[in-house]
Amino acid sequence: MKDPLSVFDYANAEHADDEIVLNRKGKSLLFMYKFRSETMEHEKLGYLSEADKALSLSLSLNPRLNRLNFSVRINVYFEMSSLKHTSNDRSYDLLQKALEDGKAAILVNLKGKDVCKVAEICQRLAKFPKCFSYGPKAVTNKEYLHTALDYLNQYICAKGQTYFLAFAIGTIHFDMGEFRTALEWHKRAFLLSDYKRAIGNVRKLCLCILNLEETASVYIEFINALTFIASKLDDLEFVNDLVPKSHWNECLGKLLRFLDFLKSFPLTTKQVEIAEYLKNVLLKKTLITARQFRKCQYTTSTRNDLEYELKTASLLQPVIEPESDHKDFEYDYFAVMSHESSGWIQCFLQQQLSTQMLYNDKKFTACPEAIKYDSCSTLLETTINGINKSRNTILVLSNDFLTSEWSLLKSIITETLQRRHVILLVISLENCNVPPEIESEHLLYFDFTDEKNIPMEIQNLKLALLEIDNFR
C-alpha cells in the first residue's frame, strides 16, 4: 500500500470520529515518523502534528481511553520537542505538555514505559537547554530530577526492577552528582541487560567510576568491574569505547593513572589482558610514545598455585566470640568467600549493600578487613577477626570455594552457628550444594546463579539483614 494512512479515510467514512480509530491513527503517524526513512524535516513535523490532532480529538470523545492516548501523545510531544528547527521556547513548552501527559498516564495505570519516558522528560527539563549534556554542570533545575526519582522509586516498589528503570535511575543520580549511587544503579542495569544493552551501559558505568575519588580501593573496584564486564561480553572490544566520546579528553589522565596503579597490583591473567588492551587504546589517543609505555609491566598473581595445608590448619583452633560478649558490633556483616569470587563480591555485592539505592533503603557496613588468602594461618586469622567484629556472617558459595577454602573454614562457620545462635546468610554464586555441616534451619538462602535475579536478591538480602537486626 503506497499510503498506509488511507485506511483511516475508509474507517472514518464508516465510523466518523471514532475514538479507537483516532487512537490508532495517532499511533500509526508516530510510527511513520520514527521508521520511515528519507523523510524531510517538514514531513516529520506534519506526521507529529496530525498525530497530536487525532489523539487530542480521541481524548475529548472518550475519557476511558485516556491512558492509551496519553501514552502515545507523550511520545508525540517528546519527539516534536527534539526536531531541529523547533525553537527553545516551543521545545520547552512541548516537554511540559509531554510531562503532563506522562503524569496523567501513570495516574491511570502504572506502566514501566511511561515511567521511564517521564524520567527522560524530567532529565531534559532539568538540563534545558543543554538536554544532551552529562553531569551536574548541565543541570539548571534539580527539582525535575527529584520528580523523576519519585516516579521511578514508586514503580520499583510496586512492580520490581528492570534494565530500563535501573539505567534511568543511574543517569539521574549522575546528573545530580551522586556518582557512587549512579555507579551502583548502572551495575544493576548491567546485570539486568542483554549483550546489546550492556554495551551502552558500560560507558555510563565506567564514567561513574572515573568520577569517584582516585584511590586504591576505587582502582581495584574498576579492574574488578572491567573483569566482570569482559567475562559477560566475552571479548575486550568494549574497552575501545570505555567512556562517551565527549568525555575521553577529561578521562585520559585518570585512565593513565589507573594503568600506573595496576603495575604494582597483582592481576589475574584476564586482568593483564585488559590492562594491555587499554594501554594500546590509550596509545592511539595520546601523545605518549610506545617507548614510554614499555615501562608498564603488569604482574600476574601466582595465587592459583597455593594449596592449603589441612594439617597446619588443625593446629590453629578458631575462637569465635559469643554474641553476648558484644554490646555493639563494629560492622553489620562479614563476607566469607573464595579468593576467586572476592573481586566480584567487593565490587558488586558489598558496594550495593552499603549504598542507599531506594528512598526507604538502609545502608549496611561490611567489615573492611579483607580475608588474606596467602596461607592457612592468615586465612583463618583474618576470617575469625572479621566474624568477631561483625553482627552477621554472609557465606558465599561457589564450586571453587567448596573445593578449596571450605575444608579449612568449615570449623569456623560451624562454631559461629553454635556459639552465636545466629542465622547464616548463604549466597550461591553457582549451582552447588549447601555443605551438610550447615543445618537448613540455621540459614537463609539467596540465589545469585541468574544474573538478572541478582538485583532483587540483593534487596531481599537487605531486608533479611534488617529483620535480623530488629529481631535482636
Automatic annotation (TrEMBL):
Domain of life: Eukaryota
Ranges that cross the membrane: none
Span of domain TIR: 329-465
SUPFAM superfamilies cross-referenced by the UniProt entry: Toll/Interleukin receptor TIR domain (SSF52200)
GO BP term (any one): signal transduction
InterPro entries membership: TIR_dom (IPR000157), Toll_tir_struct_dom_sf (IPR035897), TTC22 (IPR042342)
Protein name: TIR domain-containing protein
Species in which this protein is naturally found: Mytilus coruscus (Sea mussel)
